[in-house]
Amino acid sequence: MREHWPALLIAFIVAFTGGFLAYQLQNPTLDGADNALSSVVQVQGKLGGDFHLIRHDGVEVQASDFHGQYLLMYFGYSYCPDICPTSLIQMVRAVHQLPEKQQQAITPVFVTVDPVRDTPTEIAAYVADFDPRMVGLGGSVEQIQAMMQNYKVFARKTGAEEDIKNLTYLIDHSSFFYLIKPDGQFSHLFSSQITTEALTRSLTTIVQP
């Protein structure tokens, strides 16, 4: 999907790591196969908050600019070889399976954890591959770090020193879907291991157009 993805990446590298445990995110609770919210991750402590970032069209935005819409957010990076594109495709498919009014009530959002490489131009090309309505967010290193801290996102560059110097590194990162309410408050956290069908069922239950 992206021509600049490194060609020699290990095909089955897993970006999701145990780092989220350090942020007190528990394992998904399985309350029964018929429970639409059975793959919601239980969270200890506050998640979310205000942010100031750069949208993929180069415009500075903050959390209040999105009030009135549910945000379904995923944190990743455009050079991610596997888990990011797979998760974003899953996220978009889940939204597209909703009734039309609920679809229109949700804005899919991609937030980069790689501000060094993911410029607005890169992010714009990346999100366009998934959904024309998807919003891509980036910014300075400091802005992204603040966002990640508020949302308890784990991300760490991996590779040799030469890889990091040459900007050919990979990033281990947590992999979740964050649902934010129209008032900007955190609503639910879903494991990216949730099935598309289960995510759709959950959103159907939660989202009120």
Describe the structure.
- With 209 residues, the protein is α+β, with helices and mostly antiparallel strands.
- It has a single domain, classed as Glutaredoxin (3-Layer(aba) Sandwich).
- It is 26% helix and 24% strand.
- The protein is built from 6 helices and 11 strands.
- A 7-stranded mixed sheet has the order 4-3-7-6-5-10-11.
- The longest helix has 14 residues.
- The chain is globular.
- The two termini are 32 Å apart.
Distance between the termini: 32 Å
**CATH class placement:** Alpha Beta
SSE topology string: EEEEEHHEHEHEHEEEH
Task: Write down the domain tally.
Answer: 1
Uncertain residue ranges: 3-38
Shape: globular
Determine Rg (CA atoms, Å). Answer: 16 Å
* Largest sheet, spatial ordering of strands: 4-3-7-6-5-10-11
| Class derived from helix and strand content | alpha+beta
Helical proportion, percent range: 25-40%
Q: What's the CATH architecture name? A: 3-Layer(aba) Sandwich
In short:
The chain has 209 residues and is an alpha+beta fold. The chain has helices at residues 83-96, 100-105, 120-128, 141-150, 161-165, 196-206; strands at residues 25-28, 41-43, 52-55, 60-62, 70-76, 106-112, 135-138, 155-158, 170-173, 176-180, 186-191.
